[in-house]
Amino acid sequence: MYDVIIVGAGPAGLTAALYLGRACRKVALFDNNQPRNYASQGMHGFISRDGMLPGEFRKISRDQLANYANVDIYDATVVTGRQVAEGFEIELEDGHTFRGRKLIVASGLKDELALIEGFNRLWGRGVFPCPYCDGWEVRDQPLAVHYTGDAAFRMVRLLTNWSADVTLITDGPSELSDEQRRQLVAAGIPVREEKIARVEGENHLERVVFEDGSSIPCKGLFTRPIQTQSTSLADAFNCEMDDLGRVKTSPVGGTSIPGLYVAGDAQAGGQNVVMAAAAGAMAGGFVSEELAFENFASRVESKSVKN
Ligand SMILES: Cc1cc2nc3c(=O)[nH]c(=O)nc-3n(C[C@H](O)[C@H](O)[C@H](O)COP(=O)(O)OP(=O)(O)OC[C@H]3O[C@@H](n4cnc5c(N)ncnc54)[C@H](O)[C@@H]3O)c2cc1C
């Protein structure tokens, strides 16, 4: 029986484990090595780790957790979970079960890219989800925004931080309002509504090719994948979700189920490494406090009975 089970050893789960480990709690951390940023060529925006490969970050983190004998790390896939009298039980792919008084779900999200030839191959190599993560490397070069509607209007304006040469490519109707379209035209932002045939480039994105045979040079294409939870745990516990399929939580990651916390990309909020790590710290810290208070209450009760 563990104090805390954590599902997912990305930045959120690793940081939660560190906080709980340092709080002398007995922790089980499960991970199946499928991080969201597997395709990243360098993790940016985390001060002191800017440009570090995600795999290196995870290795250093695991090495540091090895200093805490009270933190067990299991390389395994969690398939489901349930509430039990003592707290929570999770079940692994091989049928083994583990129990913990508290459960932190830090299993992140899966990205489903648009079905456009080249998107998967060039994911993280010119086809990106986030300009803060990868915009600097393609600054002042031809960029494209692959969004529609209000989100497109927002992202195009944001991307002008990184380059004056931005094209909106919508792969169908842009769903812009007349006013949004007027402003984009006035600012010299081309709006291409033609269907996209493919994106090309050897090791890095070079151009976007449309079905009519025309193409534009492009070094950075920012797209918005459809996202789903990496595990079915949020469903298993009937967590309340937002419109984008992320779990609604309190600021410390709490859910409507006492003892169940969600941290990192899996919860509604920002999606980057430093925010995921911060969310892990919040959840880990709060859970350790909750455990301490419960233990303290039991101690008071048992002493009161004896006296
Ligand atoms: C291409 C790309 C580039 C990015 N670049 C940057 C960047 O430069 N800077 C930045 O700050 N952010 C970047 N991000 C975003 C960043 O990757 C995420 O915000 C961050 O990884 C979220 O951390 P997390 O711990 O919540 O989830 P993750 O890092 O996704 O970790 C979740 C972990 O849970 C595990 N898991 C999932 N399901 C199970 C299961 N059933 N059983 C056991 N384990 C499971 C996975 O194996 C994974 O290790 C990028 C994202 C992408 C897609």
Q: What's this, in brief?
A:
The protein has 307 residues and is an alpha/beta fold. It starts with a strand and ends with a helix. Helix 1 packs parallel to helix 7.
Distance between the termini: 30 Å
CATH topology of the largest domain: FAD/NAD(P)-binding domain
CATH architecture of the largest domain: 3-Layer(bba) Sandwich
Q: Outline, from the CA principal axes?
A: elongated
Structure report:
This protein has 307 residues and is of the alpha/beta class. It folds into two domains: 2-111 and 226-306, FAD/NAD(P)-binding domain; 114-223, FAD/NAD(P)-binding domain, CATH 3.50.50. The protein contains seven helices and 17 strands. The protein has helices at 11-22, 54-65, 131-134, 149-159, 178-186, 233-236, 273-306; strands at 2-7, 27-31, 71-75, 78-84, 87-92, 97-105, 109-112, 127-128, 143-146, 166-169, 191-192, 196-200, 207-210, 215-217, 220-223, 226-229, 260-262. Strands 1, 2, 3, 4, 5, 6 and 17 form a seven-stranded mixed sheet that branches. A five-stranded parallel sheet has the order 8-15-9-10-11. 40% of the residues are buried. The model has no long low-confidence stretch (mean pLDDT 96). Bound molecules: flavin-adenine dinucleotide. The site of flavin-adenine dinucleotide has 41 residues, from α1, β2 and α7.
